[in-house]
Design a protein that fits this description.
By secondary structure, this protein is α/β, with parallel strands linked by helices. It has 10 helices and 10 strands. The chain is globular, with a radius of gyration of 18 Å.
Protein backbone atom coordinates (compact mmCIF):
# COMPACT_ATOMS: atom_id res chain seq x y z
CA UNK A 1 0.00 0.00 0.00
CA UNK A 2 1.31 3.44 -0.90
CA UNK A 3 2.20 5.89 1.85
CA UNK A 4 -0.75 7.96 3.00
CA UNK A 5 -0.65 11.58 1.74
CA UNK A 6 -1.53 14.29 4.25
CA UNK A 7 -2.69 17.90 4.41
CA UNK A 8 -0.60 20.22 6.56
CA UNK A 9 -2.61 22.25 9.09
CA UNK A 10 -1.62 25.75 10.28
CA UNK A 11 -0.13 24.19 13.43
CA UNK A 12 2.19 22.07 11.30
CA UNK A 13 0.25 18.89 12.11
CA UNK A 14 -0.21 16.42 9.26
CA UNK A 15 -3.82 15.35 8.64
CA UNK A 16 -4.12 12.05 6.71
CA UNK A 17 -6.19 12.36 3.52
CA UNK A 18 -8.25 9.30 4.44
CA UNK A 19 -9.85 8.97 7.84
CA UNK A 20 -12.28 6.48 9.28
CA UNK A 21 -15.71 7.97 9.98
CA UNK A 22 -17.76 6.61 12.87
CA UNK A 23 -21.12 8.37 12.38
CA UNK A 24 -24.01 5.96 13.04
CA UNK A 25 -21.65 3.18 14.14
CA UNK A 26 -22.40 1.66 17.50
CA UNK A 27 -23.11 -1.61 19.23
CA UNK A 28 -21.63 -4.96 18.29
CA UNK A 29 -20.31 -3.88 14.89
CA UNK A 30 -18.47 -0.81 16.20
CA UNK A 31 -15.58 -2.51 17.96
CA UNK A 32 -14.74 -4.74 15.02
CA UNK A 33 -14.98 -1.92 12.49
CA UNK A 34 -12.61 0.38 14.39
CA UNK A 35 -10.13 -2.42 14.99
CA UNK A 36 -10.25 -3.34 11.30
CA UNK A 37 -9.56 0.29 10.38
CA UNK A 38 -6.62 0.67 12.76
CA UNK A 39 -5.18 -2.69 11.75
CA UNK A 40 -5.51 -1.74 8.07
CA UNK A 41 -3.40 1.37 8.63
CA UNK A 42 -5.89 4.18 9.20
CA UNK A 43 -4.16 6.87 11.23
CA UNK A 44 -7.13 9.22 11.41
CA UNK A 45 -10.37 8.59 13.34
CA UNK A 46 -13.37 10.92 13.37
CA UNK A 47 -16.03 10.90 16.08
CA UNK A 48 -18.28 13.38 17.95
CA UNK A 49 -20.10 13.65 21.22
CA UNK A 50 -23.30 13.49 19.17
CA UNK A 51 -22.33 10.09 17.75
CA UNK A 52 -22.56 8.64 21.25
CA UNK A 53 -19.71 6.21 20.64
CA UNK A 54 -16.74 8.02 22.19
CA UNK A 55 -16.53 5.65 25.18
CA UNK A 56 -16.53 2.60 22.90
CA UNK A 57 -13.88 4.22 20.72
CA UNK A 58 -11.77 4.97 23.78
CA UNK A 59 -11.84 1.31 24.82
CA UNK A 60 -10.45 0.27 21.44
CA UNK A 61 -7.89 3.10 21.31
CA UNK A 62 -6.49 2.01 24.67
CA UNK A 63 -5.03 -1.03 22.93
CA UNK A 64 -3.22 1.01 20.26
CA UNK A 65 -0.52 3.69 20.22
CA UNK A 66 -2.39 6.95 20.77
CA UNK A 67 0.44 8.99 19.23
CA UNK A 68 -0.06 7.18 15.91
CA UNK A 69 -3.71 8.23 15.60
CA UNK A 70 -4.98 11.66 14.54
CA UNK A 71 -8.16 11.88 16.62
CA UNK A 72 -11.04 14.27 15.92
CA UNK A 73 -14.18 14.92 17.93
CA UNK A 74 -16.91 17.56 17.77
CA UNK A 75 -18.98 19.65 20.16
CA UNK A 76 -22.75 19.75 19.76
CA UNK A 77 -24.49 23.02 18.85
CA UNK A 78 -26.32 23.09 22.21
CA UNK A 79 -22.93 23.17 24.00
CA UNK A 80 -21.37 26.23 22.35
CA UNK A 81 -21.46 28.60 25.32
CA UNK A 82 -17.97 29.31 26.69
CA UNK A 83 -18.21 27.08 29.76
CA UNK A 84 -20.20 24.42 27.94
CA UNK A 85 -17.56 24.07 25.20
CA UNK A 86 -14.88 23.48 27.81
CA UNK A 87 -17.01 21.01 29.78
CA UNK A 88 -18.05 19.16 26.63
CA UNK A 89 -14.44 18.76 25.55
CA UNK A 90 -13.35 17.56 28.97
CA UNK A 91 -16.18 15.02 28.93
CA UNK A 92 -15.20 13.83 25.45
CA UNK A 93 -11.58 13.40 26.56
CA UNK A 94 -12.69 11.37 29.57
CA UNK A 95 -14.88 9.11 27.44
CA UNK A 96 -12.11 8.69 24.86
CA UNK A 97 -9.49 7.99 27.52
CA UNK A 98 -7.02 10.51 26.14
CA UNK A 99 -5.34 13.71 27.32
CA UNK A 100 -5.84 15.63 24.08
CA UNK A 101 -7.64 15.81 20.76
CA UNK A 102 -5.72 16.42 17.57
CA UNK A 103 -8.71 18.32 16.19
CA UNK A 104 -11.88 19.65 17.82
CA UNK A 105 -14.73 20.87 15.65
CA UNK A 106 -17.87 22.92 16.15
CA UNK A 107 -20.25 20.27 14.83
CA UNK A 108 -22.92 22.68 13.58
CA UNK A 109 -23.14 26.45 13.78
CA UNK A 110 -25.61 27.72 16.38
CA UNK A 111 -26.97 31.18 15.48
CA UNK A 112 -28.39 31.52 19.01
CA UNK A 113 -24.89 31.65 20.56
CA UNK A 114 -22.10 34.10 19.80
CA UNK A 115 -19.44 32.54 17.60
CA UNK A 116 -16.87 34.74 19.32
CA UNK A 117 -17.84 33.19 22.67
CA UNK A 118 -17.54 29.67 21.28
CA UNK A 119 -14.16 30.31 19.72
CA UNK A 120 -12.93 31.91 22.95
CA UNK A 121 -13.71 28.61 24.65
CA UNK A 122 -11.88 26.76 21.89
CA UNK A 123 -8.85 29.04 22.38
CA UNK A 124 -8.86 28.27 26.11
CA UNK A 125 -8.88 24.54 25.35
CA UNK A 126 -6.01 25.06 22.92
CA UNK A 127 -4.02 27.08 25.45
CA UNK A 128 -4.47 24.29 28.00
CA UNK A 129 -3.18 21.72 25.52
CA UNK A 130 -6.44 19.78 25.46
CA UNK A 131 -6.87 20.35 21.73
CA UNK A 132 -4.12 20.82 19.17
CA UNK A 133 -6.18 22.19 16.28
CA UNK A 134 -9.50 24.03 16.04
CA UNK A 135 -12.01 23.58 13.26
CA UNK A 136 -15.63 23.85 12.25
CA UNK A 137 -18.15 21.63 10.53
CA UNK A 138 -21.09 22.40 8.27
CA UNK A 139 -20.12 26.09 8.04
CA UNK A 140 -21.01 28.16 4.99
CA UNK A 141 -18.40 30.47 3.49
CA UNK A 142 -20.12 33.37 5.26
CA UNK A 143 -19.93 31.64 8.64
CA UNK A 144 -16.37 30.45 8.04
CA UNK A 145 -15.16 33.93 7.08
CA UNK A 146 -16.60 35.25 10.35
CA UNK A 147 -14.87 32.46 12.29
CA UNK A 148 -11.54 33.34 10.72
CA UNK A 149 -12.11 37.00 11.57
CA UNK A 150 -12.78 36.54 15.30
CA UNK A 151 -10.74 33.43 16.17
CA UNK A 152 -7.55 33.66 18.22
CA UNK A 153 -6.49 30.20 16.99
CA UNK A 154 -6.45 29.39 13.25
CA UNK A 155 -9.51 27.60 11.87
CA UNK A 156 -7.77 24.58 10.39
CA UNK A 157 -10.65 22.53 8.95
CA UNK A 158 -14.21 22.81 7.68
CA UNK A 159 -15.89 19.40 7.59
CA UNK A 160 -18.78 19.63 5.13
CA UNK A 161 -21.04 17.42 3.11
CA UNK A 162 -19.21 16.91 -0.18
CA UNK A 163 -19.59 14.30 -2.92
CA UNK A 164 -20.17 14.24 -6.71
CA UNK A 165 -23.87 15.07 -6.30
CA UNK A 166 -23.11 18.04 -3.99
CA UNK A 167 -19.82 19.70 -4.94
CA UNK A 168 -20.28 23.22 -3.53
CA UNK A 169 -17.62 24.92 -5.66
CA UNK A 170 -17.92 28.39 -4.11
CA UNK A 171 -17.56 27.06 -0.56
CA UNK A 172 -14.65 24.79 -1.49
CA UNK A 173 -12.90 27.64 -3.28
CA UNK A 174 -13.27 29.91 -0.25
CA UNK A 175 -11.82 27.20 1.99
CA UNK A 176 -8.82 26.95 -0.31
CA UNK A 177 -8.38 30.72 -0.42
CA UNK A 178 -8.47 30.89 3.38
CA UNK A 179 -6.11 27.93 3.93
CA UNK A 180 -8.88 25.85 5.48
CA UNK A 181 -8.67 22.12 4.80
CA UNK A 182 -11.92 20.62 3.52
CA UNK A 183 -13.04 17.32 4.98
CA UNK A 184 -15.78 15.46 3.12
CA UNK A 185 -18.48 14.15 5.41
CA UNK A 186 -20.78 11.65 3.69
CA UNK A 187 -18.26 11.36 0.82
CA UNK A 188 -20.31 8.54 -0.71
CA UNK A 189 -23.64 10.39 -0.33
CA UNK A 190 -24.56 7.75 2.26
CA UNK A 191 -24.61 5.07 -0.42
CA UNK A 192 -26.63 6.98 -3.02
CA UNK A 193 -23.70 6.96 -5.44
CA UNK A 194 -23.22 3.20 -5.46
CA UNK A 195 -25.90 2.73 -8.10
CA UNK A 196 -24.98 5.73 -10.23
CA UNK A 197 -24.53 4.61 -13.84
CA UNK A 198 -21.29 6.52 -14.42
CA UNK A 199 -19.78 5.46 -11.10
CA UNK A 200 -20.58 1.79 -11.69
CA UNK A 201 -19.27 1.98 -15.25
CA UNK A 202 -15.98 3.47 -14.06
CA UNK A 203 -15.74 0.89 -11.29
CA UNK A 204 -15.89 -1.85 -13.92
CA UNK A 205 -13.39 -0.07 -16.16
CA UNK A 206 -10.81 0.36 -13.40
CA UNK A 207 -11.60 -2.91 -11.62
CA UNK A 208 -12.32 -0.97 -8.45
CA UNK A 209 -15.32 -0.63 -6.18
CA UNK A 210 -17.78 2.23 -6.71
CA UNK A 211 -16.65 3.60 -3.35
CA UNK A 212 -13.02 3.66 -4.47
CA UNK A 213 -13.93 5.56 -7.65
CA UNK A 214 -15.72 8.29 -5.70
CA UNK A 215 -13.14 8.50 -2.93
CA UNK A 216 -10.29 8.67 -5.44
CA UNK A 217 -12.03 11.53 -7.27
CA UNK A 218 -12.31 13.36 -3.95
CA UNK A 219 -8.78 12.93 -2.63
CA UNK A 220 -7.38 13.93 -6.02
CA UNK A 221 -8.82 17.38 -5.21
CA UNK A 222 -6.90 17.51 -1.93
CA UNK A 223 -10.08 16.96 0.06
CA UNK A 224 -9.93 14.68 3.10
CA UNK A 225 -12.43 11.80 3.03
CA UNK A 226 -14.08 10.10 6.01
CA UNK A 227 -15.69 6.91 4.71
CA UNK A 228 -17.22 4.43 7.12
CA UNK A 229 -17.95 0.73 6.83
CA UNK A 230 -18.37 -2.31 9.03
CA UNK A 231 -16.89 -4.66 6.42
CA UNK A 232 -13.14 -5.26 6.90
CA UNK A 233 -12.73 -5.80 3.15
CA UNK A 234 -14.44 -2.49 2.33
CA UNK A 235 -12.48 -0.72 5.06
CA UNK A 236 -9.24 -1.87 3.44
CA UNK A 237 -10.48 -0.99 -0.05
CA UNK A 238 -11.38 2.54 1.02
CA UNK A 239 -7.77 3.10 2.04
CA UNK A 240 -6.32 1.81 -1.24
CA UNK A 241 -6.51 5.00 -3.31
CA UNK A 242 -2.95 6.09 -3.96
CA UNK A 243 -1.35 3.51 -6.26
CA UNK A 244 -3.59 4.12 -9.29
CA UNK A 245 -4.94 7.11 -11.23
CA UNK A 246 -8.22 8.28 -12.75
CA UNK A 247 -8.03 9.40 -16.36
CA UNK A 248 -8.71 13.13 -16.85
CA UNK A 249 -11.75 12.41 -19.03
CA UNK A 250 -13.20 10.12 -16.39
CA UNK A 251 -12.57 12.73 -13.71
CA UNK A 252 -14.51 15.19 -15.87
CA UNK A 253 -17.44 12.75 -16.09
CA UNK A 254 -17.59 12.64 -12.30
CA UNK A 255 -17.28 16.44 -12.14
CA UNK A 256 -20.39 16.63 -14.33
CA UNK A 257 -22.52 14.72 -11.81
CA UNK A 258 -23.07 17.78 -9.61
CA UNK A 259 -26.80 18.21 -8.83
CA UNK A 260 -26.50 20.54 -5.84
CA UNK A 261 -28.28 17.70 -4.03
CA UNK A 262 -27.39 17.16 -0.35
CA UNK A 263 -28.23 14.05 1.63
CA UNK A 264 -28.16 15.80 5.00
CA UNK A 265 -27.04 19.45 4.82
CA UNK A 266 -30.37 20.88 3.73
CA UNK A 267 -31.17 24.63 3.94
CA UNK A 268 -33.40 24.36 7.03
CA UNK A 269 -32.72 22.56 10.31
CA UNK A 270 -34.79 20.71 12.89
CA UNK A 271 -33.69 22.44 16.07
CA UNK A 272 -35.87 20.33 18.37
CA UNK A 273 -33.98 17.02 18.49
CA UNK A 274 -32.37 15.87 21.74
CA UNK A 275 -29.03 15.27 20.03
CA UNK A 276 -28.41 18.03 17.50
CA UNK A 277 -31.08 20.51 18.57
CA UNK A 278 -30.73 23.58 20.79
CA UNK A 279 -32.80 24.81 23.76
CA UNK A 280 -35.44 27.47 23.21
Amino acid sequence: MSEMPTRTLPSGAELPLVGFGTWDLEGESFDGAVRAALDAGYGHLDTAEGYRNEAELGEVLAEYDREEVFLTSKVLPKNLNYNSVIEACEDSLERLGTDYLDLYLIHWPNPAISLRETLSGMAELHDRGLIRNVGVSNFSAYQLSCAHHVADVPIAVNQIEFHPYFQRPDLVEYCRESDTVVEAAAPLARGALFDDEIVTELAATYDRSPAQIVLKWTVDQGIVVLPKSTSPAHIRENLALFDWELDADDTARLDALDRDDPVYDTPARDWTGDRYGIPR
